[in-house]
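Hi L., both proteins are below.
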Amino acid sequence: MLKKDYIEKQLEQLALAIAKVISQITNSKMQGNPDSGIIIADEFLRSEFDVELAKLAAMDKEHLIEYLTTHKNLKSAKLNLMANLLFETAELYERSQKENIAKNLYERTLIIYDYVNETEKTFSQHRQEKIRTIKLKI
Protein backbone atom coordinates (compact mmCIF):
# COMPACT_ATOMS: atom_id res chain seq x y z
CA MET A 1 0.00 0.00 0.00
CA LEU A 2 2.85 2.41 0.75
CA LYS A 3 4.36 1.79 -2.67
CA LYS A 4 1.04 2.56 -4.38
CA ASP A 5 0.65 5.77 -2.36
CA TYR A 6 4.20 6.79 -3.23
CA ILE A 7 3.63 6.17 -6.95
CA GLU A 8 0.33 8.07 -6.87
CA LYS A 9 2.04 10.99 -5.14
CA GLN A 10 4.80 11.00 -7.77
CA LEU A 11 2.23 11.00 -10.57
CA GLU A 12 0.35 13.87 -8.94
CA GLN A 13 3.57 15.87 -8.66
CA LEU A 14 4.44 15.13 -12.28
CA ALA A 15 0.94 16.14 -13.40
CA LEU A 16 1.29 19.44 -11.54
CA ALA A 17 4.70 20.06 -13.09
CA ILE A 18 3.36 19.34 -16.57
CA ALA A 19 0.39 21.63 -15.95
CA LYS A 20 2.85 24.38 -15.07
CA VAL A 21 4.90 23.73 -18.21
CA ILE A 22 1.76 23.70 -20.36
CA SER A 23 0.79 27.01 -18.79
CA GLN A 24 4.19 28.42 -19.76
CA ILE A 25 3.73 27.03 -23.27
CA THR A 26 0.30 28.65 -23.49
CA ASN A 27 1.81 31.97 -22.42
CA SER A 28 4.47 31.70 -25.11
CA LYS A 29 1.73 30.99 -27.69
CA MET A 30 -0.24 34.04 -26.56
CA GLN A 31 2.85 36.22 -26.69
CA GLY A 32 3.63 35.03 -30.20
CA ASN A 33 6.87 33.37 -29.15
CA PRO A 34 6.41 29.63 -29.80
CA ASP A 35 10.16 28.97 -29.90
CA SER A 36 10.55 29.72 -26.20
CA GLY A 37 7.73 27.27 -25.44
CA ILE A 38 9.47 24.60 -27.52
CA ILE A 39 12.66 25.10 -25.51
CA ILE A 40 10.71 24.80 -22.24
CA ALA A 41 9.02 21.60 -23.42
CA ASP A 42 12.28 20.07 -24.60
CA GLU A 43 14.04 20.83 -21.32
CA PHE A 44 11.16 19.34 -19.34
CA LEU A 45 11.07 16.18 -21.46
CA ARG A 46 14.80 15.75 -20.93
CA SER A 47 14.68 16.30 -17.18
CA GLU A 48 11.50 14.38 -16.31
CA PHE A 49 11.35 11.65 -18.97
CA ASP A 50 14.98 11.44 -20.15
CA VAL A 51 13.75 11.90 -23.72
CA GLU A 52 14.77 14.46 -26.32
CA LEU A 53 12.04 16.18 -28.32
CA ALA A 54 13.96 15.94 -31.60
CA LYS A 55 14.59 12.23 -31.05
CA LEU A 56 10.89 11.60 -30.36
CA ALA A 57 9.84 13.52 -33.46
CA ALA A 58 12.24 11.53 -35.63
CA MET A 59 11.68 8.15 -33.99
CA ASP A 60 10.35 5.21 -35.96
CA LYS A 61 6.61 5.08 -35.22
CA GLU A 62 6.52 1.28 -35.07
CA HIS A 63 9.03 1.17 -32.22
CA LEU A 64 7.93 4.23 -30.26
CA ILE A 65 5.89 2.45 -27.58
CA GLU A 66 8.50 -0.25 -27.16
CA TYR A 67 11.18 2.40 -26.71
CA LEU A 68 9.17 4.37 -24.16
CA THR A 69 7.89 1.39 -22.18
CA THR A 70 10.97 -0.86 -22.32
CA HIS A 71 13.95 1.46 -22.56
CA LYS A 72 12.52 4.40 -20.63
CA ASN A 73 10.30 2.25 -18.37
CA LEU A 74 7.29 4.57 -18.68
CA LYS A 75 3.87 3.29 -17.66
CA SER A 76 0.61 4.41 -19.22
CA ALA A 77 -0.13 7.11 -16.64
CA LYS A 78 3.19 8.83 -17.33
CA LEU A 79 2.80 8.27 -21.06
CA ASN A 80 -0.54 10.04 -20.93
CA LEU A 81 1.06 13.03 -19.25
CA MET A 82 3.88 13.00 -21.79
CA ALA A 83 1.36 12.87 -24.65
CA ASN A 84 -0.43 15.93 -23.24
CA LEU A 85 2.85 17.82 -23.32
CA LEU A 86 3.69 16.58 -26.82
CA PHE A 87 0.27 17.69 -28.06
CA GLU A 88 0.89 21.23 -26.83
CA THR A 89 4.41 21.20 -28.25
CA ALA A 90 3.16 20.07 -31.66
CA GLU A 91 0.86 23.10 -31.65
CA LEU A 92 3.89 25.30 -31.01
CA TYR A 93 5.69 23.82 -33.99
CA GLU A 94 2.57 24.42 -36.06
CA ARG A 95 2.59 28.09 -35.05
CA SER A 96 6.30 28.27 -35.92
CA GLN A 97 5.47 27.18 -39.48
CA LYS A 98 7.36 23.91 -38.91
CA GLU A 99 4.56 21.69 -40.16
CA ASN A 100 6.69 18.58 -40.72
CA ILE A 101 7.87 18.47 -37.12
CA ALA A 102 4.37 19.28 -35.89
CA LYS A 103 2.91 16.45 -37.96
CA ASN A 104 5.57 14.02 -36.67
CA LEU A 105 4.79 14.97 -33.08
CA TYR A 106 1.03 14.71 -33.64
CA GLU A 107 1.50 11.23 -35.12
CA ARG A 108 3.60 10.08 -32.18
CA THR A 109 1.19 11.66 -29.71
CA LEU A 110 -1.64 9.75 -31.34
CA ILE A 111 0.30 6.50 -31.02
CA ILE A 112 0.87 7.17 -27.32
CA TYR A 113 -2.78 8.09 -26.72
CA ASP A 114 -3.91 4.92 -28.51
CA TYR A 115 -1.59 2.85 -26.32
CA VAL A 116 -2.89 4.58 -23.18
CA ASN A 117 -6.47 3.90 -24.28
CA GLU A 118 -5.62 0.22 -24.66
CA THR A 119 -3.87 -0.10 -21.30
CA GLU A 120 -5.78 2.28 -19.01
CA LYS A 121 -8.87 1.12 -17.19
CA THR A 122 -10.44 4.56 -17.14
CA PHE A 123 -11.95 6.44 -20.07
CA SER A 124 -10.92 10.04 -20.64
CA GLN A 125 -13.14 12.35 -22.66
CA HIS A 126 -10.34 14.93 -22.68
CA ARG A 127 -7.96 12.41 -24.24
CA GLN A 128 -10.59 11.43 -26.83
CA GLU A 129 -11.05 15.08 -27.81
CA LYS A 130 -7.33 15.44 -28.35
CA ILE A 131 -7.29 12.26 -30.44
CA ARG A 132 -10.05 13.70 -32.65
CA THR A 133 -8.16 16.97 -32.99
CA ILE A 134 -4.97 15.17 -33.96
CA LYS A 135 -6.76 13.07 -36.56
CA LEU A 136 -8.09 16.24 -38.16
CA LYS A 137 -4.61 17.76 -38.26
CA ILE A 138 -2.72 14.83 -39.78
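That was the first. Here is the second:
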Amino acid sequence: MKKIYSILSSVAIFSLASGFFGTQGTALMVERNIEELTYEADSILIGEVKSMESRWNADRTLIYTYVTISARDYVKKLSDIGESEEIIIKIPGGEVGDIGLKVSNMPEFSEGEQVFLFLKKERPTIFRVVGLFQGKYTVEDGRAKNKVLGREIPLDSFVSQIKEIMKEAGAGQ
Protein backbone atom coordinates (compact mmCIF):
# COMPACT_ATOMS: atom_id res chain seq x y z
CA MET A 1 0.00 0.00 0.00
CA LYS A 2 2.87 2.33 0.86
CA LYS A 3 4.38 1.71 -2.60
CA ILE A 4 1.10 2.58 -4.40
CA TYR A 5 0.80 5.80 -2.35
CA SER A 6 4.36 6.72 -3.29
CA ILE A 7 3.68 6.11 -6.99
CA LEU A 8 0.45 8.13 -6.88
CA SER A 9 2.24 10.97 -5.10
CA SER A 10 4.94 10.97 -7.76
CA VAL A 11 2.35 11.03 -10.55
CA ALA A 12 0.46 13.89 -8.86
CA ILE A 13 3.64 15.94 -8.40
CA PHE A 14 4.70 15.29 -12.01
CA SER A 15 1.24 16.30 -13.27
CA LEU A 16 1.32 19.54 -11.31
CA ALA A 17 4.86 20.34 -12.41
CA SER A 18 3.94 19.63 -16.04
CA GLY A 19 0.98 21.94 -15.74
CA PHE A 20 3.09 24.76 -14.38
CA PHE A 21 6.23 24.34 -16.44
CA GLY A 22 5.48 22.02 -19.34
CA THR A 23 2.96 24.07 -21.30
CA GLN A 24 3.00 27.52 -22.72
CA GLY A 25 -0.04 29.48 -23.77
CA THR A 26 -0.53 29.61 -27.49
CA ALA A 27 -2.77 31.75 -29.61
CA LEU A 28 -4.35 30.78 -32.86
CA MET A 29 -4.57 33.51 -35.46
CA VAL A 30 -6.69 33.21 -38.55
CA GLU A 31 -5.08 34.88 -41.55
CA ARG A 32 -7.28 37.51 -43.14
CA ASN A 33 -7.07 38.60 -46.73
CA ILE A 34 -7.47 42.19 -47.91
CA GLU A 35 -11.19 41.68 -48.64
CA GLU A 36 -11.86 40.49 -45.09
CA LEU A 37 -9.86 43.35 -43.55
CA THR A 38 -11.72 45.85 -45.75
CA TYR A 39 -15.18 44.47 -44.91
CA GLU A 40 -14.50 44.39 -41.16
CA ALA A 41 -12.90 47.83 -40.98
CA ASP A 42 -15.07 50.82 -40.10
CA SER A 43 -12.27 53.12 -41.21
CA ILE A 44 -9.18 52.72 -43.40
CA LEU A 45 -6.64 55.50 -43.34
CA ILE A 46 -3.14 56.65 -44.11
CA GLY A 47 -1.45 58.71 -41.43
CA GLU A 48 1.49 59.34 -39.16
CA VAL A 49 2.09 58.14 -35.62
CA LYS A 50 2.23 61.32 -33.53
CA SER A 51 2.53 59.94 -30.01
CA MET A 52 2.18 56.85 -27.86
CA GLU A 53 1.25 56.61 -24.19
CA SER A 54 0.96 53.46 -22.07
CA ARG A 55 -1.20 53.44 -18.96
CA TRP A 56 -3.01 51.12 -16.57
CA ASN A 57 -6.71 50.34 -16.94
CA ALA A 58 -9.02 51.51 -14.14
CA ASP A 59 -8.53 48.29 -12.11
CA ARG A 60 -4.74 48.37 -12.55
CA THR A 61 -4.89 44.83 -13.97
CA LEU A 62 -3.90 45.54 -17.60
CA ILE A 63 -1.70 47.99 -19.45
CA TYR A 64 -2.84 49.55 -22.71
CA THR A 65 -0.94 51.72 -25.17
CA TYR A 66 -2.81 54.59 -26.76
CA VAL A 67 -1.40 55.54 -30.17
CA THR A 68 -2.36 58.94 -31.60
CA ILE A 69 -2.46 58.97 -35.39
CA SER A 70 -2.54 62.14 -37.48
CA ALA A 71 -4.76 61.14 -40.42
CA ARG A 72 -3.51 62.25 -43.82
CA ASP A 73 -6.05 60.50 -46.03
CA TYR A 74 -9.10 58.27 -45.58
CA VAL A 75 -9.73 55.38 -47.94
CA LYS A 76 -12.86 54.40 -45.96
CA LYS A 77 -14.41 56.52 -43.24
CA LEU A 78 -17.22 56.47 -40.73
CA SER A 79 -19.82 59.12 -41.42
CA ASP A 80 -20.24 59.96 -37.72
CA ILE A 81 -16.57 60.85 -37.17
CA GLY A 82 -16.09 62.71 -40.41
CA GLU A 83 -12.51 63.09 -41.43
CA SER A 84 -10.95 63.62 -38.01
CA GLU A 85 -7.45 64.95 -38.12
CA GLU A 86 -6.40 62.71 -35.23
CA ILE A 87 -7.62 59.35 -34.04
CA ILE A 88 -6.56 57.18 -31.10
CA ILE A 89 -5.87 53.46 -31.30
CA LYS A 90 -5.96 51.31 -28.15
CA ILE A 91 -3.58 48.35 -28.06
CA PRO A 92 -3.21 45.82 -25.22
CA GLY A 93 0.32 45.89 -23.80
CA GLY A 94 2.99 48.46 -23.08
CA GLU A 95 5.21 49.69 -20.26
CA VAL A 96 4.29 51.79 -17.25
CA GLY A 97 7.27 52.56 -15.04
CA ASP A 98 9.26 49.38 -14.61
CA ILE A 99 6.33 47.07 -15.39
CA GLY A 100 5.67 45.88 -18.93
CA LEU A 101 3.07 43.74 -20.64
CA LYS A 102 3.71 42.13 -24.05
CA VAL A 103 0.75 40.72 -25.94
CA SER A 104 1.41 38.52 -28.97
CA ASN A 105 0.19 39.41 -32.45
CA MET A 106 -0.34 43.09 -31.63
CA PRO A 107 0.82 45.66 -34.16
CA GLU A 108 3.87 47.68 -33.16
CA PHE A 109 4.21 51.40 -33.78
CA SER A 110 6.93 54.03 -33.53
CA GLU A 111 6.61 57.80 -33.40
CA GLY A 112 6.97 59.43 -36.80
CA GLU A 113 6.11 56.21 -38.63
CA GLN A 114 3.87 56.53 -41.71
CA VAL A 115 1.10 53.92 -41.53
CA PHE A 116 -1.80 52.43 -43.49
CA LEU A 117 -4.43 51.10 -41.06
CA PHE A 118 -7.61 49.02 -41.09
CA LEU A 119 -9.54 50.19 -38.00
CA LYS A 120 -12.64 49.14 -36.06
CA LYS A 121 -14.46 51.62 -33.84
CA GLU A 122 -14.38 50.49 -30.21
CA ARG A 123 -15.82 53.60 -28.54
CA PRO A 124 -16.71 57.02 -29.95
CA THR A 125 -13.09 58.21 -30.04
CA ILE A 126 -11.13 54.96 -29.67
CA PHE A 127 -10.28 52.42 -32.38
CA ARG A 128 -8.52 49.05 -32.57
CA VAL A 129 -6.57 47.58 -35.47
CA VAL A 130 -8.54 44.96 -37.44
CA GLY A 131 -6.78 41.61 -37.66
CA LEU A 132 -4.15 42.66 -35.09
CA PHE A 133 -0.76 43.00 -36.87
CA GLN A 134 -2.43 42.04 -40.17
CA GLY A 135 -4.28 45.37 -40.29
CA LYS A 136 -1.20 47.58 -39.99
CA TYR A 137 1.11 48.45 -42.86
CA THR A 138 4.10 50.78 -42.79
CA VAL A 139 4.28 53.23 -45.69
CA GLU A 140 7.81 53.65 -47.04
CA ASP A 141 9.00 54.87 -50.43
CA GLY A 142 5.47 54.83 -51.89
CA ARG A 143 4.87 51.23 -50.80
CA ALA A 144 2.62 49.64 -48.15
CA LYS A 145 4.58 47.01 -46.23
CA ASN A 146 3.48 44.47 -43.67
CA LYS A 147 6.84 43.17 -42.49
CA VAL A 148 5.37 40.41 -40.31
CA LEU A 149 3.44 38.89 -43.23
CA GLY A 150 6.14 39.69 -45.77
CA ARG A 151 3.66 41.62 -47.93
CA GLU A 152 4.63 44.66 -49.95
CA ILE A 153 2.60 46.52 -52.58
CA PRO A 154 2.76 49.96 -54.22
CA LEU A 155 0.56 52.27 -52.13
CA ASP A 156 -1.46 53.51 -55.13
CA SER A 157 -2.23 49.91 -56.18
CA PHE A 158 -3.19 49.00 -52.61
CA VAL A 159 -5.61 51.94 -52.34
CA SER A 160 -7.10 51.11 -55.77
CA GLN A 161 -7.55 47.46 -54.77
CA ILE A 162 -9.38 48.43 -51.57
CA LYS A 163 -11.61 50.96 -53.37
CA GLU A 164 -12.52 48.26 -55.90
CA ILE A 165 -13.42 45.86 -53.07
CA MET A 166 -15.64 48.53 -51.49
CA LYS A 167 -17.25 49.30 -54.87
CA GLU A 168 -18.03 45.62 -55.48
CA ALA A 169 -19.40 45.22 -51.94
CA GLY A 170 -21.67 48.23 -52.48
CA ALA A 171 -22.97 46.80 -55.76
CA GLY A 172 -23.72 43.46 -54.08
CA GLN A 173 -25.89 44.97 -51.35
